[in-house]
Design a protein that fits this description.
Blueprint: H1 6-25, H2 30-39, H3 44-65, H4 67-72, H5 81-97, H6 100-119, H7 121-129, H8 132-135, H9 139-158, H10 163-173, H11 179-203, H12 209-229, H13 235-259
Length: about 260
């Protein structure tokens, strides 16, 4: 694969900047950055692996920006890091075993699934918070949350778009209600999942490093900058933007597959 020029690297940087900001505020940033890497010419599996590595530092910036909220998260919730680690590794190994042609056909469905999940996010969380289990986390709910976290982490290690939305729902089940504290915890879990997946992708030679490094800088700036902005911005505008992007990209990729039959 030829070395990217400055225009391509600049596009990757801007994609990660926007994705890091969106992930910090609302989740769903992967639906922006991954398709841009595909449009820049990377094969889908390499684009997915490079996106995982490039966006990963954005979680660091987001965690630092949400450090006050993270300090308030109950200690018991931090045990979810362990299933996140195991599931992220399993998902990455699954991607490594997936034939490129099959993954390319799965991509539009994965993006559409993540977009629909994003659309349903608020009703799901509202329903979860109205249950008796959401009022007070007990051992049964924590066990349920651990198994759910493993499943979400497998998905996150494999693809990742919409992962944050799923994790926010899990945190709602076990009793968390403050959206900023939930966002902080989600950033921590994403850091673990994408971190272990990124290591496995790098070991397999699936990462386009020039793009990943440009994206890392953008993701850190976007994640940290948006964390402070998140306390003031009307999140509805960001959510609508992510939904429009997700639907447009899934349709475009369905058309692309149809035309290349």
């Amino acid at each position: 694969m030829p070395a990217p020029d400055f225009l391509h690297l600049g596009c990757a940087f801007l994609a990660a900047l926007l994705a890091g900001a969106v992930n910090s505020v609302a989740g769903g940033g992967t639906m922006i950055s991954f398709p841009i890497l595909v449009a820049l010419g990377l094969p889908p599996i390499m684009a997915n692996a490079t996106n995982t590595v490039g966006i990963w530092p954005g979680s660091v910036g987001s965690i630092w920006g949400f450090r006050r909220e993270l300090a308030k998260v109950p200690r018991a919730m931090r045990w979810l890091v362990l299933p996140a680690l195991a599931g992220g590794a399993a998902g990455a190994m699954l991607l490594r075993l997936t034939p490129p042609g099959i993954f390319e056909r799965l991509v539009p469905w994965l993006i559409l699934f993540a977009t629909v999940l994003f659309i349903l996010r608020q009703p799901i969380q509202k329903r979860l918070r109205s249950t008796e289990g959401a009022a007070k986390a007990g051992p049964g709910w924590m066990t349920f949350a651990i198994f759910c976290q493993i499943a979400v982490a497998v998905y996150g290690g494999y693809f990742g778009a919409g992962m944050s939305i799923m994790m926010l729902s899990i945190l709602g089940v076990v009793g968390m209600t403050d959206i900023l504290e939930m966002s902080a915890m989600t950033s921590l879990l994403a850091l673990v999942i994408n971190g272990v997946a990124g290591l496995l992708f790098a070991e397999a030679g699936l990462v386009a490093w020039p793009y990943a490094l440009a994206m890392a800088v953008g993701a850190i700036a976007g994640g940290y900058g948006a964390a402070g902005f998140a306390r003031r911005i009307n999140k509805k505008y960001i959510q609508r933007f992510v939904i429009l992007i997700g639907l447009a990209i899934s349709v475009a990729m369905f058309v692309r597959i149809f035309l290349h039959r």
